[in-house]
Write a structure and sequence with these properties.
Two copies of one chain form a homodimer. Chain A has two domains: about 5-195 and about 370-455, Zn peptidases (Aminopeptidase); about 200-255 and about 300-365, Alpha-Beta Plaits (2-Layer Sandwich). In chain A, about 35% of the residues lie in helices and about 20% in strands. Chain A is built from 14 helices and 18 strands. Chain A has helices spanning about 5-10, 15-25, 35-55, 120-135, 160-170, 215-220, 225-235, 260-265, 270-280, 290-295, 340-350, 375-390, 405-415, 440-455, and strands at about 55-60, 70-75, 80-85, 105-110, 110-115, 145-150, 175-180, 190-195, 200-210, 215, 300-310, 320, 325-330, 360-365, 370, 395-400, 415-420, 435. In chain A, the strands form four sheets. In chain A, strands 1, 2, 3, 6, 7, 8, 15, 16 and 17 form a nine-stranded mixed beta sheet that branches. Chain A has a four-stranded antiparallel beta sheet with strand order 11-13-9-14. Chain A has a three-stranded antiparallel beta sheet with strand order 4-5-18. In chain A, strand 1 and strand 2 (about 70-75) form a beta hairpin. In chain A, helix 4 (about 120-135) crosses helix 14 (about 440-455), helix 5 packs parallel to helix 13 (about 405-415) and helix 12 (about 375-390) crosses helix 14 (about 440-455). The longest helix of chain A is centred in the last third of the chain and has 20 residues, at about 440-455. Chain A is globular, with a radius of gyration of 23 Å.
């Protein structure tokens, strides 16, 4: 490991962390309109950073949504081209009162950096930039391979604009493989590549009863209650065991191969430990007959995220609300498709409509499920690089999460994605007290440097 | 109708309305802690008003909650004593964006005064004060009967303090009857006395799953979803026809007498017109085999007011919330009791708990149901007064709403309540665009003046 780039990275660690903190201070919450300017500010900071480290053709690409950031360095003649992807938008930070330190004031505790976006995905995306900086600055401005960087600002709201851009610009994004660092390690110190992702449809069900909010004393007993109606619909979507009741929902579900299932059995995983340390509920739930890993990686699911409407303040307000909404998403697995699943779901929800109300079912965003073959030279190079940095063989896992762009890279650019992530299972993604283990930030940079060097040396 | 008090009231109408508007500008929302000072401010304005019009022993009575306001005038020797009750607190104004004019900036349109509290109950309570003023100012400071005024500031949150005060001070509140103007007329121009009220229990069900909010991609399929669990519980509380499934819930329900049911049939009421103009839903709901009036006046009901928790912003957040809450109330009818009903409900909800979550059921506030005999001289005097002012015979109705204090007056003071209200069915109580028909405000004052004169002349 005598790489000058690694040496550069090591001596720059403190500065890299400070720069990441500056990025985390920008509340680039893509789903909230009041943060639109913050999302753009994050794009501008990244464009500046890319220019400073020596990348070329740096551009903020405006879209009808949040902007994309593009940069490249294409002078490694005859060498492969990497498309390095990341996203600089973050999830909303609420509930704010459950954060131990403010979500947009990064704070170090016990070797971790706490902030919204610390690991998802600002911290992981920033490893790419700092690996590129280390390579460029330690070699007189050269990279061992060609690199295109493409960053988006709306992954957390469905990534519509990048999907459109990728679809419409295959020549401009021509590459041999993509590098995506938006996943996690299976366990601390266990180098991991993710080779499967669930897809998603995110929907809203809106139930309307009376034309206006009504007094529940005056009208209770005659006026329809939209929350009762909505609860009846939601309760009918799953049975008590957690099996989803939408007709045909499971028809297209493909089981993982026996080899893959066997490999999962060898992973260091204890359901009771997982329940206690990661979930903390009285028991796990889900479809009978499947392990927790199968249920989260290889089975489709349905969750309710919130039910806006009516009175949610402290104390008592005796209102029959005119409407109630539920935010409902489903995770999909191969070979389900977003379109077919949404159509089945919508028809089923409409069929469940109780008397006295109207029901509207809306698709908010979607992403297709994806499984990636491990049989390619970039996956090989990645496992070699990680062995060197971590001293261990890489495990191949799937993720229950969704990164729709990985499907688009495959579909429109015909490139495989190397999903090399350095998050940890207890990083509180999308939750209060999100963190990134600082040692993983540093070793992630090292791993990416070595990965680029391995690909360039092949 | 040669009453000098009526003449005084007529020439003072414009000023009375302006004074009411000033009272309505105070956002005395009792359920919201941030309005605590406003609730007190309303009490202070009313105390000042009572002093100005010539009432005696005016006092703001501090309590651990919001204050009471007391005043009396007790110099009509040998005449009956009236306990005039009203409340100066109001419901929250949300959803704010559905108000055509701001809730705390009273606005006149089409002969109505729009504001939160216009009719419930500031406007109706204020009729008492202005009737007393008219009587006092037109007679050299005398009233035809003895009057005690008792105003509270937490009717909308359960009225705990006034209940305690009434229970502990029967001598201080000694009276022959109570006057309560917090109900409505059955139809425009139809003088109405309310002789029955539903009781209420207002509750919260809190469901907890994981120890923290979780990413629905990572954990969906293994982590319990509290909104799904809560929906399953709520869906099981009612069948599809609206019949409440809590075991024993209907056991104590007493049917109205045949006479009362016959009288209801003679009321000018058309269910289809009611559905269209007051409710506006595709159809009415509720227990089969009962009319809409029976369902809202004489049958118990269950409503959900809101389901706080999780993500309620715009767009998509893929979170499995750690907890979800439902605000659920039930209206009770004779001879149900709040205590027995809550115990049955709590046990049933706990029995419905799905796997993987914990459930906590809390009682927020309560009030007992009440039916009042029409066989007393004060009801007679009220019907005579209203015949004179409105030119029509009074109809006796019940209300689906709850005014717990009426039960306390009966229980602790042994006085019947005359519930003489002048609201209209489309006044939007507890909803956006609450209003009071201004002509009813004026004729209500006249009716109360004549009522006091009739009681004094008997």
């Amino acid at each position: 490991m005598s790489s000058p780039a690694i040496a550069f990275a090591h001596k720059s660690q403190e500065r890299f962390l400070e720069e990441l903190k500056a990025l985390l201070r920008i509340p680039s919450v893509s789903t909230l309109p009041e943060h639109k300017a913050d999302v753009r500010r994050a794009a501008e900071v990244l464009a500046l950073d890319l220019r400073c480290i020596g990348m070329e053709h740096v551009e903020i690409i405006d879209t009808p949504g949040h902007p994309l950031v593009y940069a490249d360095w294409l002078h490694a003649e005859g060498k492969p081209t990497c498309l390095a992807y990341g996203h600089y938008d973050v999830q909303p930070a609420d509930p704010l009162d459950e954060w131990k330190t403010p979500p947009f004031e990064p704070s170090e505790r016990d070797g971790n950096l706490y902030a919204r976006g610390a690991v998802d995905d600002k911290g992981q995306m920033y490893m790419h930039l700092k690996a590129l900086e280390s390579l460029l600055k330690s070699s007189g401005g050269k990279l061992p391979i060609n690199v295109r960087v493409l960053l988006e600002g709306e992954e957390e709201v469905g990534g519509e604009q990048i999907a459109k851009f990728v679809k419409e610009n295959p020549e401009r994004l021509k590459a041999d493989f993509a590098l995506v660092s938006d996943t996690e390690m299976f366990a601390p110190e266990l180098p991991t590549l993710c080779v499967g992702l669930r897809g998603m449809i995110y929907t809203e069900i809106e139930v309307r009863g009376a034309m206006t909010d009504l007094h529940s004393g005056m009208y209770g007993g005659a006026a329809p209650n939209p929350f009762v109606a909505l609860s009846q619909i939601i309760a009918a979507l799953k049975d008590r065991d957690g099996r989803i009741q939408i007709p045909g929902f499971y028809d297209k579900v493909k089981s993982p191969s026996d080899d893959e299932l066997q490999a999962w059995k060898r992973l260091p995983f204890d359901e009771e430990h997982y329940r206690k340390t990661e979930i903390g509920s009285p028991s796990l739930v889900g479809e009978p007959g499947f392990t927790a890993l199968e249920r989260t990686w290889a089975r489709p699911t349905l969750d309710v995220h919130g039910m806006p409407g009516g009175f949610i303040g402290a104390g008592a307000k005796t209102v029959i609300p005119a409407k109630a909404t539920a935010k409902v998403s489903m995770r999909l697995v191969p070979d389900m498709t977003a379109e077919d699943t949404f159509a089945r779901y919508k028809a089923f929800v409409e069929s469940l409509k109780p008397a006295g109300v109207t029901v509207d079912v809306r698709l908010i965003n979607r992403g297709e499920p994806m499984v990636i073959s491990t049989d390619n030279p970039y996956i090989d190079a990645a496992t070699r690089a990680m062995k060197e940095i971590w001293g261990k063989d890489t495990v191949f896992i799937r993720s229950g999460g969704s990164i729709p762009i990985v499907g688009d890279f495959h579909r429109y650019l015909n490139v495989p994605s190397v999903m090399m992530g350095f998050g940890l299972p207890d990083d509180n993604l999308h939750a209060p007290n999100e963190k990134f283990h600082i040692a993983n930030f540093y070793r992630g940079i090292d791993s990416i440097i070595r990965f680029f060097e391995e690909v360039g040396a092949a």
